[in-house]
Structure formats: C-alpha cells, structure tokens
Amino acid sequence: MKNWKYQLIVPNVAETTVREYLHEYLLIPKHLIFSLRKAQRVLVNGNYRPMNFPIHTGDRVMLDFIPADFQTPFPHVIPDASKPLKVVYENEDLLIVNKNRGDKTHANQPGEVGATLNQAENYLQPAADAYMVHRLDQQTSGALIIGKNPAVVPILVRMIKDKTVKRTYLAWVHGRLNQPTGVVNDPIGRDPNDRRKRKINGVHAQSALTNYRVVQSGTTATLVSLQLQTGRTHQIRVHLASIGNPIINDPLYDPNSQPGHPMLLHSWKIKMLTPFYYQLLEVYAPLPPEFNM
C-alpha cells in the first residue's frame, strides 16, 4: 500500500500539545488529524501519544498518511509528454514550474490533455502524481505550485489562502501610472454582458485588493510589479484595466489587443516556507522573451 511518511523535529516553539502542533503549526486539517489519531499513525519519539500530550523542542514526530485518509487520494491525471515541463524548484512534496503561456493549468474535459498538470504527471510518474494547488489563467505564464502527494495539498491551499505564500507578478501595461506605488481595492464581480469577463462592482462583487509598484517606465508602456491580497478571478487584469492601464494584449480587457500577440502578464516570484519543514524558499520563474521591450 502506498503511503506518505514524515519524520519531523519539533522546532524551537513554546510548549504545546500534539494536536496544537499538528493543526496550528503544521496546518494539517482536523479530519486528517482524526484519521492519524484513530489509527495511531502519529508517533512522538517512537511512541503513540494522545492528542493532548505535551511535546517540546527537539521531540521527534512521525506522521504516516495512507490513501484511505483522503477523499481523492490519487488525481487520475492523464500524462502528456508532448511538451517538456519547465521545473524551477522541486522537493519531496511539491514542484514549482514555469507554466507556458497558452497552456491551461488543468484539463477541463474527460480525456483532455495538453495542460500543465498533464505535463507534470508525465514528469513525475511513476514515483508520484500531480495534484492541483492553485491555477493561473491560460494566457498567464510563470510560477505555478503543483503538489506531489495528497497530504501536502490542503496545507498549501491553506497557506495560499492565508497569504503566507507571497506571489509576485510582472506585467507590461499601456500608458504611465500616476504614482510609483499604489493600491487598487475596488470589488470585482461577474460581467452580466459577457460570461468570460469580470468587472468592477459586477454581479455578486467581492472585495479585491491589488498592490502595484512601477519597475520601469517607457513613453507608451510601463512594467509593473504586482502582489495580490485577495484571489479573485482575473483580479490583476480587471484592476489594471479599471485604472486606465490594461495589460498589453489582454484579449478580454485591452481594447487595443492584437490577435496572436501574447498577453504580457507573468507570475514571476514565489516566496514561502515549505510545508512540514518550514524552510524559507524564494523561487523565480524566468521571464519569457516578449518581456524584453
């Protein structure tokens, strides 16, 4: 039977219990903690201990996850060897890849291939599988996190939700921005006139916040660095268009978009602590050639 084991050393933290260490420090969901406890697959210094047992700095904790712990232990992604996967970082739990512009993050239809997740499945087999953690728009290139086992996925999703994974984007936009740094915080909802699009104060609008910083200014275009404080669909694209600086060649929000030309939005940097082991990680996805304007 396939399983996923972790041998961890409790870091220099205040005295805590097994349950607090698993849930509050490692960010393991409660239903997985229940499975580990029920089957006694969490050991402290080689012995099973109850969840309220105190643990201390330097204690050895072993976790053993099995497929039955997960609703979908295996993703059943079809491997696709038609394109090489651009791996910029890899450890036992995750990949960070440089997604190709024009490729989907994941397939949408049964039997569909060609997405980045299909490429990752081909790269990882037979030792591991590719699990989706988050997505990039089809026309956005750059750094994308992919899980390698089901235990790490909910932790990565929680870290992204809590904004402890810092993602920085670069974009070339039309025109010049009025300020070198700024914040756009207009709510984003669905566009009632075009199901593909989102708009400011659209249907069922939700709060959205984007930070930007000017990196380079030209006469007709500006390179900006962007960080999201929320994760709405098309957030960067809608916010930049709303302030009069749409992303160059954005097929939905740039009225001067040229068919066949790439949208100039790239997921450039990911800064995070690795799940379970909490090692600082800062990874850059090389810029595509069209960014050399």
TrEMBL record:
InterPro entries: PsdUridine_synth_cat_dom_sf, PsdUridine_synth_RluA-like_CS, PsdUridine_synth_RsuA/RluA, RluA_PseudoU_synthase. Pfam families: PseudoU_synth_2. It comes from the Bacteria. One of its GO terms (biological process) is enzyme-directed rRNA pseudouridine synthesis. It catalyses: a uridine in RNA = a pseudouridine in RNA. This is RNA pseudouridylate synthase. Belongs to the pseudouridine synthase RluA family. Coiled coil: none annotated.
